[in-house]
Amino acid sequence: MPLLDSLHVALELEIPSDVRYIERVVEVVTHQVSRLAYHPRQVTLNLPVALTEALSNAILRGNADVTQRRVRIRCDVNRERVILEVVDEGSGFDLLACMQDPTSPENLVREDGRGLFLMAHLMDRVESFTNHGNVVRMTLHRHD
Amino acid sequence: MPLLDSLHVALELEIPSDVRYIERVVEVVTHQVSRLAYHPRQVTLNLPVALTEALSNAILRGNADVTQRRVRIRCDVNRERVILEVVDEGSGFDLLACMQDPTSPENLVREDGRGLFLMAHLMDRVESFTNHGNVVRMTLHRHD
Amino acid sequence: MSFAMQKNGEVVVVDVAGQLIVGNRQELKQKVLDELEKGERKFLIDFSQTGYIDSSGLGVLVSLSKKIREQGGELRLSNLNDDLKTLFELTKLDTLFQITDTRERALQSF
Amino acid sequence: MSFAMQKNGEVVVVDVAGQLIVGNRQELKQKVLDELEKGERKFLIDFSQTGYIDSSGLGVLVSLSKKIREQGGELRLSNLNDDLKTLFELTKLDTLFQITDTRERALQSF
Ligand SMILES: Nc1ncnc2c1ncn2[C@@H]1O[C@H](COP(=O)(O)OP(=O)(O)O)[C@@H](O)[C@H]1O
Ligand SMILES: Nc1ncnc2c1ncn2[C@@H]1O[C@H](COP(=O)(O)OP(=O)(O)O)[C@@H](O)[C@H]1O
Predict the structure, then answer these.
(1) Which ligand 1 atom sits nearest the alpha carbon of residue A114?
(2) Chain B residue with minimum CA distance to A18
(3) Cα(D66)–Cα(D71) distance, rounded to whole angstroms?
């Protein structure tokens, strides 16, 4: 379908640091992606879970749960891939150093520490860098 | 609703010069706008009709109905206004000079000549200029 | 989009389902002209299932109304929703056409 | 999202409707701990109406399972759809929980 193949959507929004916004942000983003005929599972599993993790880390870690601090979300999607960026006001963190293996026997029964792991496993690529804030960028390629 | 208030969506797509694409382009664009809670009438009347006019002029006039020539569509929308740009490969035209009054007694029974008039009356602003092609830019402010 | 036609007494009723725009107006024009050719003279175009109409859709209606009148026939329109009414008022085409609220009233008025 | 609770024989059944994520997991935790406090020991969490679960939702399940076991109780899960199964497999939590396909089978298994 040539029309969808040429479609490119870029979306930006901003929320206060309040976890109650997460679900609505996820709805806005996944709705966009689903319109580009991504695989249903990418729309119902990979994207919502990875984005929820990035948002809750931005709110609770990066912005230390201070409501006034803003979280910015960018979504850039075409028929090839979707790139999500979540930007918080924190000073950044070392993605690789912070990533743990929650499946190891000692970690399996822990309550926390699965966020970055899920992001890494549900998305094709996860990066973190600072650029006017701490940016977490995640990329997922479309499949039908 | 702070989330929608901060939302900004930019959309780009491209079609061959074939009027059968118009309806789908209109659907893609109006869907985006409706998600930002524009007035139903803006979504069902102003935008679809004005965009259809701009697209058919781009296809039939600007691109002289030559299928291979492309029409690019950009839509930039937030809670304040939507800006639509339709770009064809023609050399441009003089918007004011081409606009007629289809309501005058002599024009009322003519079959053509209502396109630019409808665009001007259904949108808040219509401009035409050249910038890598002939650009028709239309702006509409949201009301609830 | 589709143009369903049916005969109601002496009147040919056309239902415009979906958009009436540059991509399909020619189909409507041809269908109506074919009936005119066959001798039909009373036409009602009903818009209860119509989405939006563009300038070339309006143009086809103007052109059909002229051709039908030239053959001593009549064209009426019914069931314009608020969006379509606005479109006809903007272009003053509401002064050119016989527009009726309901299909029933339109049928009786011939 | 909501957490509806009902008693089925000796088993407290919790239906998770919608997402189980950072914004609401505390509510689920509190509701189950309240029942544990009151003396309930058998718990079934049913996911047939669940959307997605994030890491903190998973974390709450881990924490509840530990607390229930410490009181000599049991927690079982039922009706995970394919997405949720993948999530439990990815995190190996499918090895930690007793997961049953249907609610009926889960209830019988206590
Ligand atoms: N946006 C962020 N800003 C600062 N630190 C972060 C951010 N995201 C993740 N981290 C760090 O990475 C660690 C691991 O994150 P994660 O895997 O999501 O587990 P959890 O959040 O449950 O600890 C966090 O504890 C935090 O130290
Ligand atoms: N994209 C375009 N490129 C070149 N000329 C255009 C374009 N759009 C409009 N025009 C000119 O403006 C005229 C009036 O357009 P319009 O009001 O839509 O009526 P119609 O298309 O029915 O003639 C056209 O006939 C054409 O000469």
Answers:
(1) 17
(2) B3
(3) 9
CA distance B62 to B69: 9
Cα(B50) to ligand 2 centroid in Å equals 13
Strand partners, A71: A15
Instruction: Read off the amino acid at residue A85.
Output: E
Contact A8 B3 (CB under 8 A): no
Half-sphere exposure of C54 (CA within 13 A, CB side): 26
Q: Return the percent helix, strand and coil in chain A, to nearest 5.
A: 40, 25, 30
- Is the separation of the CB atoms in D54 and A53 below 8 Å? yes
How far is Cα C60 from Cα B13, in angstroms, rounded to an integer? 29
Q: For residue D2, what pLDDT is reported? A: 86
Q: Quick count: other Cβ atoms within 10 Å of Cβ C100?
A: 19
Ligand nearest to the CA of D22: 1
| Stretch 69-88 of chain C: residues touching chain B, C-beta under 8 Å | 82-83, 86-87
The yes-or-no verdict on residue B1 having pLDDT over 60 is no
pLDDT digits (tens, 9 = 90+) for B68-88: 999 999 999 999 999 999 999
Chain-chain contact of A2 with B16 (C-beta, under 8 angstroms):
yes
CB B86 within 8 A of CB B103: no
Q: Rounded distance, CA D110 to CA D102, Å?
A: 13
- Helices A115-122 and D55-70: angle between axes, nearest 10 degrees: 130
Q: Is C74 left (phi over 0), alpha (psi -120 to 50) or beta?
A: beta
